[in-house]
Amino acid sequence: MSAPDVILYTDGACSGNPGPGGWAAILSSPSSGKRVELTGSDPETTNNRMEMMAVLEGLRQIKKAPSKIHVVSDSNYVIKGLTEWIQGWERNGWKTANKKPVKNRELWIDLVTEVRKHKCTFEWVRGHDGHPENERVDQLAVEAYQKYL
Description:
Helix content: 25-40%
Binding site for Mg(2+) 2: 11, 138
Protein name: Ribonuclease H
CATH architecture: 2-Layer Sandwich
Mean pLDDT: 96
Shape: globular
Oligomer: single chain
CATH class: Alpha Beta
Low-confidence stretches: none
Order of helices and strands: EEEHEHHEH
CATH superfamily: Ribonuclease H-like superfamily/Ribonuclease H
Number of domains: 1
Strand content: 25-35%
GO cellular component, one term: cytoplasm
CATH topology: Nucleotidyltransferase, domain 5
Structural class: alpha/beta
Distance between the termini: 43 Å
Radius of gyration: 15 Å
Binding site for Mg(2+) 1: 11, 51, 74
Function: Endonuclease that specifically degrades the RNA of RNA-DNA hybrids.
Strand order of the largest sheet: 3-2-1-4-5
């Protein structure tokens, strides 16, 4: 795939799991140099839900479809969910390989709907490892939930 239209950096954070949570996304356009930071929070949630919300809300900001989007996340749950597990979940009626209901089903459905509007690639990065944009979205996600503490 050629250069992306948008690079979407995302992170979610939670104080306790469940507990107050925050999410953050940075949308960066390599061609224009534009950069937008987004955040949100929830008083009672889980870390996985916040990781998902970061990607979902970031994708919802991209109005031109299809766009080439490169999603960068430190969440194996999100990356593997969207690249490995989703087809099986859909095929199995939103049940896991163990025949249990998929957790966060409603968010997965919303997320995959947004992903399929675009041409997305995904990259996992190690969290808290010095990646500048990952460090920034982590900081923003933590700040987003701190209002509940």
